[in-house]
Structure formats: structure tokens, C-alpha cells
Specification:
The protein is an alpha/beta fold. The protein has a single domain, classed as P-loop containing nucleotide triphosphate hydrolases (Rossmann fold), CATH 3.40.50.300. The chain is built from 5 helices and 7 strands; from the N terminus they run E-E-H-E-E-H-E-H-E-H-E-H. The protein has a 7-stranded mixed beta sheet, sandwiched between helices. The longest helix is centred in the middle third of the chain and has 17 residues.
């Protein structure tokens, strides 16, 4: 997909702040240090549109990005690892779940996992929740450039066994591996959302 424009629209800390416009939305979810922002920036061909950080849990809001003035990427708060008070962590979880459960504009949820590790309990819980609620989802296994082709195949097989109802695509924000395949899935979902 050709990206003509990509812009940050707003951060939402509660449902009343969610975007009012009816653009179809693609959400990105994953652990706090899995590379959500890097994936978003890589897909959009931008260096710093979504803020990256070495500090897990930096994204504490739902962030909306308008792409080609026709659809949105939505960056949800990361889960796990973040050194934040339990109350705030609980609020993040509720905010993300409310968004995923109630957002009519949502056409695809991209769950991000680290290809070098077996999906965590939290990864599995999110995957199970998306499956149970029949949410259209895709699993993107980031940091694919860190493994040899043989190890990458084995790792993708393992992730696929843990998450059997979703397609699992390897991705590298460094080399661009998997970019075309991910965009194809996004494009398919946007067509469905626009029908």
C-alpha cells in the first residue's frame, strides 16, 4: 500500500476521548517491550510517528493515527513488565478491553509477539480473548531479523501451535521482512470494513 499521509491525531485516556470520526480502525496490541511503535513506524515508512522508548509501558493511552485520510492505526497500551502502579495498570487493561469489545470501527486487531520467545501467559490470554469474542485478528511476530531462517521457521511453528486460529506472520522493522504480507492482511480487513 502506498502511504501518502500519516499523522498522529490524538491520545485517549478514557472512552469519551476516543475518535468521533468513523474511519475503519486497525489496532496494535502486545507486551510493553515487543516493538509496537517500531512496527507502526515501519509499516507507515515513518521514523518517529509512533513514539518508541526503551522504557516498557511508555504508552499509557490509546493513540490514534490517521493514514491516507481514510483509516486509522490505533496503538493500545502495552501489557506486562511496565513499572507502574497496579491501579494504573488495571485502568489500562480495562480501557483496552472496552475498546476491543465495543469499538464498531475496529476491522482488525494485530497482536504482536516477539518471535524469539514462546508466547507468554498474557499473550495467550489476549489471544484467547480475541478468539472467544470472534475478533478478526492477525499475529505478527516481530524481530524476525534476530533469528536464522531455520530457527525462525521453528519459532513461527511454535507460535502457530499456541495461537492456531490466527495467521502468524514474521516481521522485521529493520529489514522490512513481512511488510508486504502484513499490508495485504490490513488491506483485506479494510475492504471488509468498507463493504
Amino acid at each position: 500500500m502506498k502511504i501518502d499521509t500519516a499523522e498522529f491525531l490524538k491520545s485517549a485516556f478514557e472512552e469519551s476521548h476516543w475518535l468521533k470520526e468513523r474511519y475503519p480502525e486497525v489496532s496494535f496490541l502486545g507486551r510493553s517491550n515487543v516493538g509496537k511503535s517500531s512496527l507502526i513506524n515501519s509499516l507507515l515508512g515513518r521514523k518517529k510517528l509512533a513514539r518508541t522508548s526503551n522504557t516498557p509501558g511508555r504508552t499509557q493511552s490509546i493513540n490514534f493515527f490517521l493514514v491516507n485520510r481514510s483509516f486509522c492505526f490505533v496503538d493500545l497500551p502495552g501489557y506486562g513488565y511496565a513499572k507502574v502502579p497496579k491501579k494504573i495498570k488495571a485502568d489500562w487493561g480495562k480501557m483496552a478491553e472496552d475498546y476491543l469489545a465495543n469499538r464498531r470501527q475496529l476491522v482488525l486487531s494485530i497482536q504482536i509477539v516477539d518471535v524469539r520467545h514462546k508466547p507468554s501467559v498474557l499473550d495467550q490470554e489476549l489471544y484467547n480473548w480475541l478468539s472467544y469474542h470472534h475478533k478478526k485478528s492477525l499475529v505478527v511476530a516481530t524481530k524476525a531479523d534476530k533469528l536464522s531462517n531455520n530457527k525462525l521457521r521453528k519459532s513461527i511453528d511454535l507460535i502457530s501451535q499456541c495461537m492456531p486460529e490466527s495467521e502468524v506472520l514474521p516481521y522485521s522493522s529493520v529489514t522490512g521482512k513481512g511488510k508486504e504480507a502484513v499490508w495485504q492482511q490490513i488491506g483485506n480487513a479494510l475492504q471488509i470494513g468498507n463493504d
